[in-house]
Design brief:
The chain is 50% helix and 17% strand. It has helices spanning 2-21, 48-60, 72-81, 95-98, 127-132, 134-158, 169-184, 197-226, 252-259, 270-278, 289-297, 325-338, 340-349; strands at residues 24-30, 38-39, 45-46, 62-68, 86-87, 102-103, 108-110, 112-117, 122-124, 229-231, 245-248, 265-267, 284-288, 302-305, 312-314, 317-318. It starts with a helix and ends with a helix.
């Protein structure tokens, strides 16, 4: 009996070792697209998507064979035709694509963004521009009106029974203004104080209102001061019409522009698209936000307008009903939980 158990253990151990020594080969369709897939001169690959796939492959004992294609259309075609088992780079999950391929759980939160030439935009900021913003001007006007109103009210209430406000005419109103400013800013010198019951009730109300006003002004002014905006004649997607716009064919950006009847030119690569914008041969590019952000990080002379104009998610594409889906999904979830995803994201997208 002992010998039988020992034999079973040996056979089981040997079978496990054999399984570990015979990984499953998985063909992965990729396309160079920094920083997701970066091809080195020697033909090797690196990048965020490559790091993430390497993690997935290690978790599932896959041996990877990369199949390089030119664009996302060829990636999906390779999966549909069986020339590749999966496709990974920066592939947006859409309802149209889901009709012919399956996707993993989302591997990246993305969206489309607009890029314009750096020479056609200017960065604004500083004290004057902060004070010129609509929100700050509105609060300043509210403060001014509140001070004048409070000064008149407190002078009318206190002038008969309070020597601090006994003056008449301009001098009396000035005393009220002094009290209102000191009270609003909670400085509280105490040289002018209300003495009547009505005056003190009004003072308490004004002080509470003043705290809210000052807090609102501080928040609005700080936001306006620290926020550097890009001034351009294409401040939003609605302003793209009438301008020369470029993007890549077969992308969600091209679909977005077509749906909105915005004319655009098609280019063959991201480098060509960014180059045209840099040289002002195009007024704007519409493409995936992380790719454009990475281009800015690399020093390209383009500016990003606002935030993403759409919300998209990238996934790993595979054939419908593929037995790879569950293992890939589980590995991606593990990457989120054990910190591997955060490490890869920081390495490629943050300074």
């Amino acid at each position: 009996m002992i010998a039988l158990v020992a034999c079973i253990c040996v056979l089981t151990s040997g079978g496990s070792s054999a399984a570990q020594s015979n990984p499953r080969e998985v063909r992965v369709a990729v396309r160079p697209l920094e920083p997701f897939v970066v091809r080195a001169a020697d033909g090797s690959y690196s990048g965020f998507s490559i790091d993430l796939w390497s993690y997935i492959a290690a978790k599932n004992n896959y041996r990877t064979t990369y199949v390089e294609v030119r664009n996302v259309t060829e990636q999906l075609d390779a999966v549909r035709a069986g020339r590749a088992d999966v496709a990974i780079t920066a592939i947006s999950i859409t309802a149209e694509r889901e009709e012919s391929v399956d996707f993993s759980v989302p591997m990246f939160n993305s969206g489309l963004q607009i890029a314009v030439p750096a020479s056609a935009s200017r960065e604004t900021g500083g004290l004057l521009s902060a004070l010129a913003t609509r929100s700050v001007r509105l609060i300043l006007l509210t403060i001014l009106v509140s001070i004048i109103f409070a000064a008149l009210v407190v002078w009318l209430i206190e002038r008969r029974d309070n020597p601090d406000f006994a003056h008449t005419g301009v001098k009396g109103v000035f005393e009220g203004l002094w009290w209102a400013v000191v009270t609003l800013l909670t400085v509280g010198y105490g040289d002018r104080v209300t003495r009547t019951s009505a005056g003190r009730v009004f003072s308490m109300m004004f002080m509470l209102f003043g705290v809210l006003l000052v807090a609102s002004f501080t928040a609005a002014f700080t936001a306006a001061l620290t926020l550097h905006t890009i001034e351009t004649d294409i401040p939003s997607a609605n302003d793209l019409r009438g301008h020369k716009v470029v993007t890549l064919a077969g992308t969600t950006a091209a679909s977005y522009l077509k749906e909105r009847n915005i004319p655009f030119d098609v280019v063959g690569s991201v480098d060509e698209m960014i180059g045209r914008v840099e040289r002002s041969e195009a007024d704007a590019a519409v493409y995936d936000a992380p790719v454009l952000t990475y281009a800015v990080k690399r020093g390209h002379a383009i500016h990003l307008v606002g935030g993403p104009i759409t919300r998209e998610y990238y996934g790993v594409a595979m054939a419908q009903d593929s037995d790879l889906q569950d293992p890939i999904d589980m590995a991606l979830l593990d990457a989120y939980q054990d910190g591997a995803y955060s490490r890869y994201y920081t390495a490629w997208f943050e300074d």
